[in-house]
From TrEMBL:
It comes from the Bacteria. Belongs to the adrenodoxin/putidaredoxin family. This is 2Fe-2S ferredoxin. GO terms for cellular component: cytosol. GO terms for molecular function: 2 iron, 2 sulfur cluster binding; electron transfer activity; metal ion binding. SUPFAM superfamilies: 2Fe-2S ferredoxin-like. Residues 2-104 form the 2Fe-2S ferredoxin-type domain. InterPro entries: 2Fe-2S_ferredoxin-like_sf, 2Fe-2S_ferredoxin-type, Adrenodoxin-like, Beta-grasp_dom_sf, Fdx_isc. Keywords: 2Fe-2S, Iron, Iron-sulfur, Metal-binding. The lineage of its organism: Bacteria, Pseudomonadati, Pseudomonadota, Gammaproteobacteria, Enterobacterales. Its cofactor is [2Fe-2S] cluster. It comes from Buchnera aphidicola (Cinara strobi).
C-alpha cells in the first residue's frame, strides 16, 4: 500500500496528513475517506476541475492522464506541469505527495 502525503493547505488541511492508500484508488477518494474536504463539484464525473491537485512526488506512478482530463486541467487555477484531477488520478505502487491548491475555478475562500 503506497503512502500519500497531503501537504499542508491553509484552509482545509493546516497540518497536512500522511495516509495509506490502495493501488487503484483515486486521490479524491483517499482524501474524502480521510475527512479532507477536497472540492469536487461534479461528484467525481470528470466534468469540472475543482479537485485539481499538484503532484509533488510520484507523478509517473499514477494512472495515465486521459484527453478529457487534460482538457479540463487547462481551466484549472494554478495549473502546473504535474497537475492532475483528484477524481481521475489513480494510485500506482509508488508513494506520492499531493498539494491541494488554495483556490479552484469555482471556489475562492478568503478567510477561515
Amino acid at each position: 500500500m503506497p503512502n500519500i502525503i497531503f501537504h499542508p493547505q491553509k484552509f482545509i488541511l493546516p497540518n497536512g496528513l500522511s495516509v495509506k492508500g490502495k493501488i487503484g484508488d483515486t486521490i479524491l477518494d483517499i482524501a474524502l475517506k480521510n475527512k479532507i474536504k477536497m472540492e469536487h463539484a461534479c461528484e467525481k464525473s470528470c466534468a469540472c476541475c475543482t479537485c485539481h491537485c499538484i503532484i509533488r512526488k510520484g507523478f509517473y506512478s499514477l494512472s495515465p492522464c486521459k484527453e478529457k482530463e487534460e482538457d479540463l486541467l487547462d481551466k484549472a487555477w494554478g495549473l502546473e506541469k504535474y497537475s492532475r484531477l483528484g477524481c481521475q488520478a489513480r494510485l500506482g505502487k509508488e508513494d506520492i505527495e499531493v498539494e491541494i491548491p488554495l483556490y479552484t475555478v469555482n471556489h475562492v475562500k478568503e478567510s477561515n
